[in-house]
Amino acid sequence: MVPEHPRARPVDRASALPLWAQVQADIERRLRAGEFTDSFPGEMALVDQYAVSRHTVREALRRLREGGLLDAGRGRAPRVASAEIAQPAGTLYSIFASAQESGHSQRSIVRALDARADGTVAARLGLEESTPLIYLERIRLLDEEPLAMDRAWLPASIAAPLLDADFTQTSLYGELSARCDVRLTGGREEIRAVVPTTAERVLLDIPDRTAALAIDRLGELGGRPVEWRQTVVRGDRFGLVTDLTRPHHLEASVTAGRQPRRSA
Length: 264
Prior knowledge:
Number of helices: 9
Shape: elongated
Largest sheet: 6 strands, antiparallel
Number of strands: 10
CATH class of the largest domain: Alpha Beta
Helix content: 25-40%
Strand order of the largest sheet: 4-5-6-9-8-7
Number of domains: 2
Distance between the termini: 57 Å
């Protein structure tokens, strides 16, 4: 007989509730009690604790991942899911600033930083199709885990100095202010839930059946569009918050960020 783990409740094989559901419920109880603060047990340890099959444990863990209580990726053991970033709505949101304010570490993997032409983006910015643009593409990491894929285009006429910036540990808006003396004054943004592409799911290590948020932003300088940005954020690690008790905040969310943050 497999010895019972002192903190795990044994399953009831006479119950109509499936074994995996009983294991899931008991692990949830232990999670909420703060038992796994330091580490989370592996599959075989849970098999021993509950005296069930590995298939039963895997189904329980899969349900916990889908519920956002556990985080697991390729080649990684399950662990307690980290808290998501809560971003105020109605601002030019800043992953960099939000991570710092919530006590998380952040850095970026720069996949591209160059000058190029893009007729579609240039048209969005009200420019000729052949106008040179500065393009920045990054994978944003939160506590060393992928959070978002961020792609931004700005006219080279104002943003060319950004080509010398190191974006691994700094923000786009911070560098834009310091190197180009440009501070966005507003803009508009569209946020929608999307099914990640295969490439996005791999790059951001998005769990199966987990959606993402797509954020399209047109940043403005004195009413003139100067930034087009497309961001895909893991839906299980990012949230938007609206403070309904602050009238000026309600106005800001209607006007799409007239009081911007200056880090992104």
